[in-house]
Each structure stands twice: as C-alpha cells, then as structure tokens.
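REQUEST FORM: STRUCTURE PREDICTION
Request ID: SP-0412
Submitted by: Lab K.M.
Chain count: 1
Length (residues): 239
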Amino acid sequence: MAQAITQSGYVLHQKAYRETSALVTFFTPEQGKLTAVVRGLRSGQKGAAAKRALCQPFQPLHLSWREGRGELVTLHSMEAAGIRFPLMGEASYCGLYVNELMYRLLYPGVAMTPFYRAYEQTLYQLADAKDRAQQAWQLRQFEWVLLDQLGVRIEFRQSLDGQPIDPHAHYAFAPDAGFWPVGPNSIELTVPGHCLLAFAQGDYDAACQKPWRFIFRTALTQALNGQPIQARALFSQDT
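STATUS: Completed
RESULT:
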C-alpha cells in the first residue's frame, strides 16, 4: 500500500462524484493543486456534515491522502488546521475569484511553497481590507504573482524597446510583448506611465485602478483562452 502523504491545504473547488461523494480540488504547498475523492461528502450519514463544514473555501486544513490512479488521490483524513479566514460579503467574492483563477490556471502536482504563502497572505489582506479599493488593490497584487507563477512576467519598469518607463508618456499593452509608447492620438487603449511605475513600486493610486485592471484582465483573458471567469458575476460593480 502506498504511503500516506500529509500536508496543509485549502479547498479550491468541488463537484459531485457518483451518488454520495465529491471530487474536491485542494491547493497544497508541496503538491500544488490536487484533486481527491472525498467519500460520503454528500450523504446523510453521520460525519458527512462535519466533512462539508471542512470543505468550505478559506478553511486551513491538515490533509492526508494516498496516491490513486492518474491524477486522482484518495483522501485518508482531513482536519481543521486553524480558524477559517473571515471573508464576508464582497471580500468573500474576491476570495472566490482568487480560488477560481487558481483552479483553472494552475497545473496539478507542481510544488509552489512560496506561492502558497502568497495565497494565504492574500486571504489575510482581503479579510483585513476596509473598502472595495483596498480589495481591488489586493486582487491586482495577487494576479501579478499568479501570472508570474505561470511564466507570464509583466515588466512595469521598462518598455518593449528596453527603455525606462516615462511617467509622462502613455503605453499600449499586450501580454506577449509588454508595454510600448504610443502617441496622444492612438486609437489603442493606453496606460499612463506613472501608473506603471506606481504599481512597480507598490504605491497605491486611486486614479490608476482602471488602467491596472485593464492590464491584468487582458493578461488573464489570454491565459484563460478567452473563457469568462464565473466569479466576476458575483461583484456588485467591476473590481
């Protein structure tokens, strides 16, 4: 029998499997994204309600599983590893958006311990955010780290031709190319240079929210092959 593997983790996604079980996708530091069969999760048997409570988003877990056939693993045990992150209202929608991006874009079975810490930090920052502007800022920071994890490196300090970004210029953007300067009469959507430098320096600027959102939405749309992100429909306004 294969040896049990034990790690911390979070639930990213779940769907029904057979009559009473579920396929639950977890995110772990050393195995990355993995999908396990959680037996009896949807049954009325004793203990099923406790399993369902554990399989909620943003709940830190201790997981133990054995390797199965293909990419599926068989969950051996699952316990709470702490208090669930208190994401409420719009913050909860932001967290679900983050989870959906990870579920759809991360490759299974790839160790990503630093990114795991970045994910936990994002949940903490979303729970602590005071308003929508702070939530949006945290999402942009997370999207940048996620894209970098996927090999999409967005360089905010220099343009496509290798020149430093001019804070007084405007730039067009494409994920495969980066930023390039355009004239004032360009018909392309443009980003002010000072917004690029502000993001690179980690300086929040309310006037840059829309340009930042344009950059990351463009890059993520390409990464998702144009498929929509379902969690965006939850927001009362664009974030």
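NOTES: The chain has a mean pLDDT of 91.
Reviewed by: T.R.
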